[in-house]
Amino acid sequence: MTEEIKQSNTHNRGQEQNTSSEPQQPTPQAQRQNQKVQPESQPKQKKKQQSAQSVNGGSREGFNLIPAMTKEEKVHVKKKNTLNIGSILSLIFLAVIALAIVGFNITAKTQLNRRKSALSKIESSVSSDIDKIASNNVILDRVKLYLDVQSSNFSHRKIIEFFTEMTERVGGISYDSIEISESLRFEIHGSASSLERLANLWYIFGVDENIEEITLDSVGKNEKGASFGFEGTLLLENFSKD
Amino acid sequence: MGLATESIKKRKKEQAIVAEKIKKTRLTFSDLIIPIASGIVLVILSFAVFVPMINAALGYLGEIKTTNEKIEQLEGLKTKIGLLEENQLNEDVLTARNVIPNILLVTSFAYYVDELAREKGLQVEKLEARDALDGVSGPLEYSGDYQSVISFLDDVQDVSPYIIRLKNVEVRLKEDDVGISLDVSGYFIADTEQEPDIYAPFQLYTEYTDVIEVFRNKAAEK
Fold this sequence. Notes:
The structure holds two protein chains of two kinds.
Chain A: H1 2-14, H2 16-19, H3 28-37, H4 42-55, H5 71-127, H6 130-151, H7 156-170, E1 173-180, E2 185-192, H8 195-207, E3 211-221, E4 226-234
Antiparallel strand pairs in A: 1-2, 2-4, 3-4
Chain B: H1 2-25, H2 29-82, H3 86-99, H4 106-119, E1 123-127, E2 130-132, E3 135-144, H5 146-158, E4 164-173, E5 178-187, H6 209-220
Antiparallel strand pairs in B: 1-3, 2-3, 3-5, 4-5
């Protein structure tokens, strides 16, 4: 389209003068162009030039009536050119974006399908060993139960021996009963030969590192001396099983 | 004079033609149709096609990542399974089921505890056993000398072929003998018919060789 415009412009400046009914003399440039392009038609042109010269009153020099393109006109033509390229570019951009997105989508889906097929292969391969996994889990469940039981397990023997050892240290103390719960809470009931010995036992229990806390739950004085009841909590780490 | 007017007319005509041409080359709305139309198409396509397509593609990428992780996990699982020796595994399953059975019969459990008490020279005062959640438990009462009671307390857990926990132990100390009452729980694990989930975290039982050794010892005592 642009080419057409340019051609038509040059045509205007050259040949249009000839085609018009006016006996205008063509510019020397146009003449030269015509000479180059149509060497065979030279005699005809010469005749025409002669007739044109006669119309112009014999003057040899002609003048161009079409003014040269102003800067504005050039900008207009240039602008149009650019805009047309812009349209093409925008279409190309649209096409490229569409292709890129569709391509990205297709690539991603293809890759996903490939990975899924690899996964299904390895899944079927692992499924053939499902019995081994089940057997492993059977053992593992039992191991975990055992460890859980063991973690809160403590030696009742060690605890009873600890309390017995305490009575030996103080002297004059005898237990009636020792109760030990799962959470290492204990209750001791017994009798002491005197209140002083009971106080001594309480003190020793209070400062012992195996006992987390202790309270004298009950105390009573009788003919034999004193009866008592302690409540407290033992420290697991000191009585855990080896 | 006449020639001059004629030439002016001609010039005007020429100018009119040039003006016409300039008009033709001037930017018009029709020149903007393609860029504007392509812009509109781009916007419409963006919302109608491109955005869903991009979202789908991003979803695929997320799925690829998850799939890759699964593949990696299953490959790791396969490697670990390869480390298990089938004969040893079968043997260890039997041992573990021996120690912590699928079901613990009340009679077997009561029989074992009572048998141990008798071995230690304790007198039975009360023996009860009943089903409890995931186990069998029963209050027991025995009496005997101090050493026998202490030894019984030690062995009932350690030497037991089952996994046993003592609860609420009460020792009554009398002059010549010691009475003991306690609750004993024995555990079992009922096996499920369900197939294991291959995507569940997997750990090799061989990491607990010390516990397996304990199981073997306990099973050997049966």
